[in-house]
Amino acid sequence: MTNATTPPQWTYALRTYARPGVADACLQLQARCNVDVVVMLHAMYAFDKLGVRLDADTLAAADAHVRAWREQVTVPLRALRTALKGGFSALPASAVEAARQKIKIAELEAESAAFAALAPFTGGTPARGGDTAQAETLLDAVVALYAAAVDNGSSGDAPAKAAVRTLSMAICASAPGLDRPVRGDGPR
After folding, report:
1. Distance set, CA 104 to CA 64, 69, 129, 174 (Å)
2. Integer angstrom CA distances of residue 50 from 8, 14, 136
3. CA nearest neighbour of 115 among 176, 173, 38, 170
4. Alpha-carbon distance 80 to 15, whole Å?
5. In 10 A of CB 96, how many CB atoms?
6. Each residue of 67-122: pLDDT tens digit?
7. pLDDT, tens digit, 9 for 90 and up, residues 11-35
8. How far apart are CA 72 and CA 156, in angstroms?
9. How much is the mean pLDDT over the chain?
10. Whether residue 152 has pLDDT greater than 90
């Protein structure tokens, strides 16, 4: 799935997502606070690789830019992939799993396309790499953007805060571990 036109945030997202605890933290924020993991990983990329902490206006604009794509393409693909996970009694498990894997590929392609669409959204303030306080400020802003729409109070709860801490530590950790091969799955 990686080629000459692959957005750099996609490669970063795959490598970051493969780090210990990151996938669980992303899924926790997605489930509890309705966070778009693609927008969040784009913000993490801007912080870690571009030295920019995206501001609230840029985060909102980035979300608005990919919202229809997420709602009409990525989320339905994810829902269909998830529905197939349990199998269907009338069909052979191998046929269901083959269809599920094709849908997973389409979902990953949709996420990669969203990353490419987010490339221009890099407005913000200069960030100091390795500064976990700045990383947490960024991630808190991302969570707040989505939690406000859900309005269930989950953005300040202990699991959400723990997920933010895990992610801030991941983007502030030393980079050598990011150069290892990555899994075939990506953001969800």
Report:
1. 24, 16, 33, 31
2. 11, 17, 17
3. 38
4. 25
5. 18
6. 999 999 999 999 999 999 998 999 999 999 999 999 999 999 999 999 999 999 99
7. 999 999 999 999 999 999 999 999 9
8. 29
9. 87
10. no
